[in-house]
UniProtKB/TrEMBL annotation:
Residues 265-275 have a biased composition (Acidic residues). One of its GO terms (biological process) is ribosomal large subunit assembly. Pfam families: Ribosomal_60s (PF00428), Ribosomal_L10 (PF00466), RL10P_insert (PF17777). It comes from Gossypium lobatum. GO terms for molecular function: large ribosomal subunit rRNA binding; structural constituent of ribosome. Residues 247-281 are annotated as: Disordered. This is 60S acidic ribosomal protein P0.
Length: 281
């Protein structure tokens, strides 16, 4: 606790006390100031809990608290907060302890005069109570599977109490959730034909498609549909518009090829004339 207080010193204060006294203090403060938002903390004052008042970043405060933990042995009757697994390897115990391992169904062998655990064994599962045999074995092996420390169970901010898991959310997580909610709102708005800011653009596009389909199927027209109707009446216009752009580069490429071949032909003729004159000389 002293290490935690030292690590939080400067912008945070830890306050521990009896639950009845803390509840009374909260009620008196709410009556004196008229701020009933603090009463949301009353249902949370159950068990061995306390308060951390801070002006700093909540996520950084929780990370600082998590740094300070002390190893603790497995005591009989204690509810295991985590799974306890005994690793394989040499235990350093003499062979007379073999029967002790057999009671717990832990496979062992004798290696160099000591007991060796062959495979890893899940000794205690999370949520189970520690038995006397499990506690004695862990004590013999010198294993301290549990730890003590402060754990943030709830966060209070401006009258709202929320789970500490919220502090793990990043900006990317918030944006992803916002996009998901936005998509759901848009889908619901389109399904019930109720206009919203997110559904309005889709409604306008769908209305335009419907009007365009009607104009194509009938004599009715409007400026945005005239070009489509022209293409449907004479598809060659669309083909010329596309083919005209593609034909120009092809023609220029042929002309360049012809220009490059003509000088080569002239040079070849000149070289032939020089060769004939040389023979008659």
């Amino acid at each position: 606790m002293q290490n935690i207080r030292k690590g939080l010193r400067g912008d945070s204060i830890i306050l521990m006390g009896k639950n009845t006294m803390m509840k009374r203090s909260i009620r008196l403060h709410a009556e004196r100031t008229g701020n009933d938002a603090f009463k949301n903390l009353l249902p949370l004052l159950v068990g061995n809990v306390g308060f951390i008042f801070t002006k700093g970043d909540l996520k950084e405060v929780r990370e600082e608290i998590a740094k300070y933990k002390v190893g603790a042995p497995a005591r009989v009757g204690l509810v295991a907060p985590i799974d306890v697994i005994v690793p394989p390897g040499n235990t350093g115990l003499d062979p007379s302890q073999t029967s002790f391992f057999q009671v717990l169904n832990i496979p062992t062998k004798i290696n160099k005069g000591t007991v060796e655990i062959v495979t890893a064994v899940e000794l205690i599962r999370k949520g189970e109570k520690v038995g006397s045999s499990e506690a004695a074995l862990l004590s013999k092996l010198g294993i301290r599977p549990f730890s003590y420390g402060l754990v943030v169970v709830s966060v209070y901010d401006n009258g709202t109490v929320f789970s500490p898991e919220v502090l793990d959310l990043t900006e990317d997580d918030l944006m992803e959730k916002f996009r998901s909610w936005l998509s759901n709102v848009t889908s619901l708005s389109l399904a019930v034909s109720f206009p919203t800011l997110t559904a309005a653009p889709h409604m306008f596009i769908n209305a335009y498609k419907t009007a365009l389909s009607l104009a194509v199927a009938t004599e009715y027209t409007f400026p945005q549909a005239e070009k489509i109707k022209e293409y449907l009446k004479d598809p060659t216009k669309f083909a010329v518009a596309v083919g005209g752009d593609a034909a120009a580069p092809a023609t220029s490429a042929k002309e360049e090829k012809a220009e490059q071949s003509e000088p080569a032909k002239e040079e070849e003729e000149e070289s032939d004339e020089d060769l004939v004159a040389g023979l008659f000389d």
